[in-house]
Amino acid sequence: MAGDFIITGGRPLSGTVRIPAAKNSVLPLLAATILCSGPVRLRNVPPLADVDTSLRLLRGAGGAACRQGGDVLVERAPTTCRLDAKAAAQMRASILFCAPLLARLGRAETVLPGGCRIGARPVDLHLSGLKALGAQCREEGERLILTAPSGLRGADITLRFPSVGATETLLLAAATAQGSTTLRGAAREPEIADLAAFLCRCGASIRGAGTSTIRVEGRRTLAGCTFAPMADRIVASTYACACAAAGGRVELTGCAPATYAPLLEILAQMGCSVECGPETAVISRFGALHGVGKVFTGVYPALATDAAPLLAAAMLTARSESSIEDVIFERRFACAEGFAAFGGRVETAGRTLHIAPARRLSAAEVRAPDLRGGAALVIAALVAEGTSRVRETGFIDRGYADFARKLGQLGAQITREMRPGA
Fold it and tell me: Do 4-19+231-417 and 23-227 come out as alike in CATH topology?
């Protein structure tokens, strides 16, 4: 992993952050370009490690994809069905590239995807849905091979859990399948609606995205388009929690507060001032923080699982107790060990993190265990007295572009120290 963050805590944050395009929208959009017969341009895509991995997947399968300034341009869809094993293993979202390859070429080959170690993330919902659409699936060693000998055909599918990834996979498969598909029990996250909006811009027929029932009329071909992905509500949540923890006043622009409203509501209950407009949120914290008892994550529109560690970091110095239960991933709070190193009074019990009041946090050397847990440790370091070091920052690069520089522009004392060979 590349470099460490060196952070001297105790400085309040002040300034404005424009929120970039959402990683969790851009990755399925890049997978969707495989369905398109013409060029696709995605606007203002941040330089994230996961985006680079997605571009490697497209190029490795014969596609033509590159960055042009702040945009990503996909000029040609892949021509081969095999995804690069090394790139696919690095990222959970690589599974999303299988359905469009299957739809376009009749076959897709990959390895089981990797990503952050936050718990079981099975692909069985993806595969069972694809089977309902006519796919055949088999494993050969570590490889997963999908075929559709007679093409994909519409079906009536009910998901037993509203998985975001499975919903995206089945939208991508159904968009050009023969006939009609009804997907019940679908995820309702705004990134689902963003993917559907892109596909419809390219000529797909999709109704109900953003609700639990989505109906798709398959189209033989899709065109290309220029598209601006939605803003990243988890990045916005990160800077909101950083301001709550460190104190000060931060304005977040370009991201609808409605997409991360549960987190803002909890910050307000903790003692922050939160002012919202259609595309702007202003978070201020100049007094003490208070605990809020027990909160839960859940499927949208509940508190996002990705926001749980970030919120926990803001709760570390609150004057009363809080706890967060994550109902999605069993190892969401791998960052708890790092919190304890800073002096946080935390305890994990199953999927729940309990946080007791800590008078102060002290500098420590910690390791980012995963993407959001790593960002949460950076937030804790912003509060800790003294100079801290956060290692394994490559995890953080998967979801945050120029994280140190942007925090520095808000007044944080943070630098990145690159190790030899990074």
Answer: yes
* Nearest-angstrom CA–CA distance, 422 and 406: 21
Question: Would you put residue 271 in left (φ > 0), alpha (ψ -120 to 50) or beta?
Answer: left
- CB contact at 8 A, 210 and 347: no
Q: What is the pLDDT of residues 1-47, one digit of tens each?
A: 478 999 999 999 999 999 999 999 999 999 999 999 999 999 999 99
Quick: pLDDT tens for 181-217. Answer: 999 999 999 999 999 999 999 999 999 999 999 999 9
Instruction: Tell me how many degrees the CA angle 383-387-393 measures, rounded to the nearest 5.
Output: 85
CATH for 4-19+231-417?
Answer: 3.65.10.10
Write down the H helix ranges in 124-251.
124-132, 164-174, 190-201, 233-246
DSSP secondary structure of 32-77: HGGGBSS-EEE-S----HHHHHHHHHHHHTT-EEEEETTEEEEEE-
Which tokens go with 145?
A: 């091979």
User: Which residue in 394, 381, 374, 373 sits closest to 344, CA to CA?
Assistant: 381
Distance, CA of 314 to CA of 422 (rounded, Å): 31
Strands 365-367 and 387-391: parallel
Strands 352-356 and 387-391: unpaired
CA angle (129, 91, 121) in 5-degree steps = 50
Pick the CATH number of 23-227 from 3.30.70.370, 3.30.450.20, 3.40.190.10, 3.65.10.10: 3.65.10.10
Dihedral angle over CA of 345, 349, 352, 357, nearest 10: -20
- Residue from 373, 368, 367 nearest 353 by CA: 373
Strands 226-227 and 273-276, by their bridges, are unpaired
Whether the Cβ atoms of residue 98 and residue 173 lie closer than 8 Å to each other: no
Annotated active-site positions, please? 116
Domain boundaries, the chain: 4-19+231-417, 23-227
Which H or E element spans position 29? helix 23-32
